[in-house]
Amino acid sequence: MTTATNRHSDRRISPVFLGIVAVMAVTGWATWTGFAEQPGVAVFLFVTAAWIVSLCLHEYAHARTALHSGDISIGAKGYLTLNPLAYTHALLSIVLPVIFVIMGGIGLPGGAVWIERNRIQGRWKHSLISAAGPLTNVLFAVVCTAPFWLDALDGVPADFRFALAFLALLQVTAALLNFLPVPGLDGYGMIEPWLSYKIRQQVEPLAPFGLLLVIAILWIPAVNGVFFDVIDTLLRGLGIDEISTYCGQNLYRFWTDTDQFCTVGS
Question: Which cofactors must be present for this protein to function (predicted)?
Answer without folding.
Answer: Zn(2+)
